[in-house]
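**Backbone description:**
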Amino acid sequence: NLEKRAQEFLQYQSEPLLEWSNQYSDYSAVALFGEYLRGRFGQDFLKEIMRADAVGVESIEKALRVFGNNESFESLFIDWTLANLYNDASGNAVYVYNNENLKSLRLTPTLSVLLRGLSGTTLKDNFKEWTANYYFFNGQADGDYFRMSFSFPAKELLRVVTVSQDTFGKKTIATKDFSTGNGIVSIPGFSRAVTS
C-alpha cells in the first residue's frame, strides 16, 4: 500500500530514482514519483506514459508533450524533490502530493547544520545521479551571506537547488548548474533577512 511505500521511502530517501536494483527502496521511490505525477497531471497522464512508444525518462517527456507541457524530466524531478521536503500547496501547488494518504509526508534533511559565524566549515558527502540530498543550514553566517563551495567530478553536471526562507516565512527557490568540477553558491542577507 502507498502508506507503507512512503515509510520505506523516508528510510531510504537518498536512493536514486532511476537506478533499479530491485530493492524495497526502488519500489517506494517509483511509487511516490508516480503518485506525484498522478496528483499533478491526473490519471490520464499515467496512462499516456504507459502508451508511449518509449520507456523511462523518454516516456514521461513524451507524455508531457502530448499534454502540451514543455517541462523536462529534470524540472519534474526537482519539483518532486521539493514536494518531498515541503508537501505544502500554500507556496506553490507543484510542491505537494495531492493524495490524502500522503498529506503528512515530509522528508527530514539529510544533514542539519547550526552556523555560529564560523567560516571554513567542511562537509563531505557523496551522491548518485537522480538523487536529492537535503541540507538544512541556519544560525549566524560569517558576515552577511551564506556561501557554500563544493567540488565534484569535472565530467559531470551538478544542479544545485537552494531554498532560502526569510524572516516572514517566504521561501525563495533558485537553481544553478555547474559543470567545471567546482562551484560556489551564495545567499546574501543570510544573517539578517534570511533565516534558513
